[in-house]
Structures are given as C-alpha cells and as structure tokens.
Amino acid sequence: MTLITDVRLRRVLDSRGNATVEADVLTESGGFGRGKAPSGASTGEYEAIELPANEAIANAREEALPRLIGEVHAGNQRDVDAALHAADGTDDFSGIGANSAVAISMAAAKAGADVLGAPLYQHLGGTFRGNEYPTPLGNIIGGGEHAADATNIQEFLAAPVGAPSVEEAVFANAAVHQEVHDILADRDLPAGKGDEGAWAPSISDDEAFEIMDEAVETVADDFGFAISFGLDVAGAELYDAEEDGYVYDDGVKSTEEQIEYIAGKVEEYDLVYVEDPLDENDYEAFADLTAQVGDQTLVCGDDLFVTNVERLQAGINADAGNSILIKPNQIGTLTDAVDAIELATANGYESVVSHRSGETEDTTIAHLAVATDAPFIKTGAVGGERTAKLNELIRIEDNAV
Ligand SMILES: C=C(OP(=O)(O)O)C(=O)O
Ligand SMILES: [Mg+2]
C-alpha cells in the first residue's frame, strides 16, 4: 500500500527568499506527503552538504528517483533513507544534496503516515511513545550570523520550563518577545528583526542579558510559572584560529576565558541552556565547561555534533556536553536524525530538535520532537515559518492533527 509510485521535486522559496527543495511523495494506495528543506546560515563545518536547489533537484531526479519509485515503501522509513544514501554514494550527501535528501525523507514519512491515517508523530514514534511534549525554546534577541550590527552571541532564548502545557509555553515565549520590544522602546533602542524573528538591536551582549532577565521575570509573574532563559553562543562563528580565541566587539577571549565567561553567565542568570559555547573542534573545552556547569544547565552541541552519531559518540567518550541539537538537514535523513536521538538518550544526553535560520512552513520537526520525547524544541517565537511549528505543537497536544 505504501509502495512509492511517484516523487516530484520543485524549487520553492524559503523564509530568506532563497530557493529550496520541495518534495512530494505519492504511494500506490493514494498516500501523499510533502516535505521542504530548511537551510542554515551559521552552518557547522561538518554538516551534510546543501547543493544549489536546481542542482540538488537535477541530481536527485537522476540518481534517487529510480531507486525509490516502484522500489521502496514509504512506510518503511529506514528503506527510504537507505535508498537515498545508496543513490547519493558519498558520506556527506554531496551527490544529491542534503536538501533533496531531507525533503524526500520527510515527504516519504508523511506519505507513510497518510496511508495509515495516523498523525506523523504517531507514525514516527509509535503508539507507546509516551505523553510528554517538548518545551519550546524561543529566540528573543539575536545577532551573530543572523543579523548585522547586533549582539555577538547569536541567540538569547526564552525557556518556559514551568509551563503546564505546550500552549501556555508558546504564548509565554511570544509574550517575552513582546516584553523585550517594550523594554527596547523604553530605552529608545530601535530594533529590526533577524532571520528567525528575534529582535536584533545594536546593543552589547551584557545589555541583552539584562533585558532578557527583566523580560522573563515580568512574563513569569504575569503567567504564574517559571520562565528561564538560555543561549546559542554559536561559538564556532566567534572563534578565530589565527587569534586563537573568541572575537567579541570588546576584545578577544582565550579558550580558558571563554569557559570562565560562560560558566559565570550560567551562575549569574541561572541559564538552563547553553548551545555551542565553544568552537566546533574543541571537544576538550566542551568537556571542561560541562564538568563545571553540566549539573545545572544543558551544554548542547550543535555545530559540535551536527546530528552525526560518530561525532556524538566522540563527544560521549570525551564527556563533552550533555545535550545534542537535532537538525535533520544537518545529516540528511530522518533515520539518521532518529539514530542520533537514540544514541543520545542511551547515554543520558538530552535532545533538542531544531529549526534552521532559513525555514519554510514545513512542520515535520514538531512531529519529530513529540515522536522522540525530546525535552526541548528550538523553533523561534514569532513569524509565519516559526509559528507553523509552534501552532502544530499546540494542535498535537490538542489531538487535533
Ligand atoms: C538555528 C541555527 O542557525 P542556523 O540554521 O543558521 O545554523 C543554530 O545555529 O542553531
Ligand atoms: Mg546553533
């Protein structure tokens, strides 16, 4: 019934106005699924390769479609993703493009769910998946590679850890976003938005810490539950090998100083989450920071692990971090992403399923987070391509998908 009978690929727009890959998968019994690839700006050195959309589409049509159509069942996700790897023939998806691969992988999963008449999260996670929902991390203030002339730290993220429901958590993050707008206005600080909808004022990182602290406290009082905050430092973007340090507007920090700086901020602001505090090649520094603050906060590897089981295993062996960011397009297929989550869970690492800075209205990551019982999902706070996922989470919680 789920035998794939057609795969159609096309170029569509992403949230930055760039071309991305959309895939439709059709099955023998009329099942249909559609997936769209997101795209990063602060990409990790070890990510799977995104090709220009036209090239990715042409290569996938030539190499992947003959291995899928009439050959593979959309309901067997591991078979779909193995066919994509075989069609690609490289270890980084540079043959057909990770963008074609992930779009097809997600479209096939949705086609499989469609045939079953089940929501995607249930197809991926099974009926015994548990009853937990992820806490959304909402990007509120940001800079780095996502906005010019703003903070050095890429993302200041609201974390409504005390929210009684996904719905309350989503609205709390939106309220923090609004509160920060009001604080910026009071301080006469004009601010546009960065790629993910976070405010991108021209302020120092220290001022952003203060504003976040004030905003989450105000909204926590209004909503009546705890709201903390966290960071995506995107350390690999700050690290300069020639300087042998982390380059901030107010000077360069050595690796030791960077560890001390982040550990100090974890203490000062009770940060619950710190992503990529250090360079993507520095397992040792990650391990040092984790030894210092890993019992009080999540130290998460994004560019460090790139959703890759080999890099995660190296991190586990080195005690580097205690959490992994999961971005399906960083590795190319849902199977690879789920393998990374399973390895993480088996070793006590928390998984944080994540969007990219360039996004679409695709909602697969909301279903993936619920299917795998991920404790957190990072998918912005406002903006159509972000609210697509947040609103889908609300619907999932409400049994309305
Ligand atoms: C979402 C992120 O940004 P990008 O998609 O640009 O890598 C991130 O770094 O976590
Ligand atoms: Mg990151």
Automatic annotation (TrEMBL):
InterPro entries: Enolase, Enolase-like_C_sf, Enolase-like_N, Enolase_C, Enolase_CS, Enolase_N. The active site is at 196 (proton donor), 327 (proton acceptor). GO terms for cellular component: cell surface; extracellular region; phosphopyruvate hydratase complex. Transmembrane segments: none annotated. It is found in: Cytoplasm; Secreted; Cell surface. Its main location: cytoplasm. The keyword Secreted applies. Substrate binds at residues 146, 155, 275, 302, 354-357, 378. One of its GO terms (biological process) is glycolytic process. Belongs to the enolase family. This is Enolase. It comes from Haloarcula mannanilytica. The lineage of its organism: Archaea, Methanobacteriati, Methanobacteriota, Stenosarchaea group, Halobacteria. The gene is eno.
